Amino acid sequence: QVQLIESGGGLVQTGGSLSLSCAASGRTLSGFVMAWFRQAPGKERVFVGKISQKGYTTYYADSVKGRFTISRDNSKNRVYLQMNSLKAEDTAIYYCAALREFDTETVDYWGQGTQVTVSS
């Protein structure tokens, strides 16, 4: 059993930066691909990016590529999402997730989400 808890959300201006953190309790995350998703009001939850178990490989949605960076520190059982050049369309609840494989569509565990609001 893995529990994921996101933190770091808040209000930021357009063009600004924000860093999110996802901490795990229960057991180690080292065997999981870790991912970030987001859900804007009235919209479906969509994929943002993911990182392989050892942190060597990352993949991002086109909407955030070049602006967002995923990293992880398995020694701290934590994964991060650095968000730069934020736009109003980035406003959403951001969710941390643990996946079994890098190319799977199945999420094993979800965090509770943290709100990110980008204002002009």
- Mean pLDDT, to the nearest integer, reads 96
- In total, the number of strands is 11
Q: Gyration radius, to the nearest Å?
A: 13 Å
The N- and C-terminal alpha carbons lie at a distance of 40 Å
Strand fraction = over 45%
Low-pLDDT residue spans: none
The major sheet is characterized as:
7 strands, mixed
Order of helices and strands: EEEEEEEEEEE
- Number of DSSP helices? 0
Alpha-beta content class? mainly beta
Apparent shape: globular
Helix content: under 10%
Task: Give a description of the structure.
With 120 residues, this protein is mostly beta strands. The protein is 0% helix and 52% strand. The strands form 2 sheets. Strands 2, 4, 5, 6, 9, 10 and 11 form a 7-stranded mixed sheet that branches. It starts with a strand and ends with a strand. The mean pLDDT is 96.
Which helices and strands occur, and which strands form pairs?
Layout (H helix, E strand, L loop, with lengths): L2 E5 L2 E4 L4 E8 L7 E7 L6 E6 L6 E3 L7 E6 L4 E6 L8 E8 L7 E4 L3 E6 L1
Parallel strand pairs: 2-11
Antiparallel strand pairs: 1-3, 3-8, 4-5, 4-9, 5-6, 7-8, 9-10, 9-11
List keywords for this structure.
120 residues, mainly beta, 4-stranded antiparallel beta sheet
Summarize the structure.
By secondary structure, this protein is an all-beta fold.
